[in-house]
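From the pipeline queue, job 12 of 40. The input is one protein chain; the requested action is below.

Action: predict structure.
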Amino acid sequence: MRASRGERFAPTVCWAECRFMDANSQVQPGLVQPGPVGTREIPPEVDFVYVMRRDSDYVAAQFAGRLGLEERVEEIRELYDRYVDDLARHVLQAFATRYVHPAVDLLSSREIHQRRLELASSLGPATLVSMDPLMEEGALPLAFSRCYALGGETLMEMIPRPGCAPLASQVTDIVTAASGGPLVVIEDDFFTGETLERVLGKQLGPLMDDVIGVVPGTKVGPRELSFPVLPAVRYRCSDDASPLDKVDLGDPRDFIVGVSGLVCRLGSGALGRLPYVLPFVSPAARASLPRGAESEFSRRALELSRNFYEELEELGRRTVVLDDSDPAFARACIELLGVDGGTSMARVLDATATRGADLVGLADASHVSPTGETRTAQPRG
């Protein structure tokens, strides 16, 4: 149910204590934390659910390594956890401008990781192939990214994830390790399943015959493949509605400046990463946020990024600079903002604000067609 024009609805933030379990559980309006594995049932009164995986362990390890703070990784994780909590509230408030009863479902990546290991083991002895950067230990990577033109609307090509080996080399490593044995593919999320099946078929080729199952972190669409799909978390509606009409997914790290985001081809031809916030990328186009709320949401998200880096500097007792961020993001900022690798993240955020008018056309292109018609976000796979 969408909010009527002129009406304002304040979301009810409900923290639900959840334990590791497989029993059915309901997603209630508001903010659900941390979310059990198993089946997540959406009752009719919930209009829309935005699902986020708490990716704190992964992000904390990245920053701890870059900053030489490995012994303080838990403190960095706690700092990032607070960022995720605040981000989830802002996401919920943005969706409350369109829906009467939206929900943001925060899932525990630790529980999902454990559950996926169990599900993969249930398929029998096999070589694990991971498409998910949050679960690469003990698995061979099939690491690729969708590469977009600046703005985030036009898909250009499938490429190796920035910093990873060419896809042909990755597949060769899988062939060598599997030696003709069965494969289990680990994926982050399964939306319609169409993109997953198409990409696996293209990248693995004849190896597809050796795939005995896919184990995603989350599954939204009801579609099944020619082999078992065993998700850690499955969404379904308690009425006849399709979860595809009520659910979208995203990772918190895609909204923070300098961590991850949309892989794009820069004007120079180099690869960059840009966060899902204006003026870089339209969160309406990439994360289904209401168009009318994306400016305020982006302002708040950039403020969260600034607070995060201020606290990270206090923790590490050193200035965090652009070279400490994701290399593809740093490359994009050097080209788009005219900064250098030694620029502090505080100044990068200043440059984002002062030069935002120069960049806003990039995000505008992601949801406005040449004829002026508003575009919707591309469907996920």
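Job complete. Residues 61 and 72 are 10 Å apart (CA to CA).
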